[in-house]
Amino acid sequence: MRFPGQVAAMLSLALFGLGVTGCAALITGKTEEITIASEPTGAQCRVERMAQPVAVVKSTPETIRIPRSRYPLDVYCTKDTNAGAAIVPPSLNLVTFLGLFGPPTYLVDSFLDADRSQPEAIVVRFPMSR
Fold first, then answer.
1. In 3D, which of 72, 96, 76, 100 has the Cα closest to residue 86?
2. pLDDT tens digits, residue range 81-91?
């Protein structure tokens, strides 16, 4: 038979465990800032994910804020008659491994896409003109 103090302690521990699950989501947030640059600078770019528009850059370099996702970003840039593109897959967010309770924490972070992150900067290089 359990005593009321033991039940309260177990309940507190369970609530604490639920509170810290998804540590990466709490620490890094649901969005991230990425600088979109191009060589040459001054290009107009559109950023897509899964063929859906995410952001528009009027003139590179520019910093955008986008939601985190497990899907890659497609960046298409144009300047004058030149065009360039980059496909950037997300990498593993190392903050995910700070989870105190192992697999449950990772599952929450994975569900919220907090286990992935994009680089701080994406540079689109144009092919040389002929």
1. 76
2. 889 999 998 87
In tens, the pLDDT along 20-52 reads 555 555 666 678 899 999 998 999 999 999 999
- Buried-state track 32-49, b at ≥16 Cβ within 10 A, e below 16: bebebbbeeeebebebeb
CB within 8 Å of 33: residues ≥ 6 apart: 63, 64, 65, 120
Q: Taking Cα atoms as reference points, which of 97, 100, 98 lies closest to residue 13? A: 100
CA distance 117 to 59: 24
- Tell me the backbone φ, ψ of residue 100, rounded to 5 degrees: -80, -20
- In the chain the domains, ranked by start, together with CATH numbers, are 4-125 (2.60.40)
| Chain centre to alpha carbon of residue 28 | 9
Rg (CA), the chain: 21
- Cβ neighbors of 44 (< 8 A, separation 6 or more) are 56, 57, 58, 59, 60, 77, 78, 79
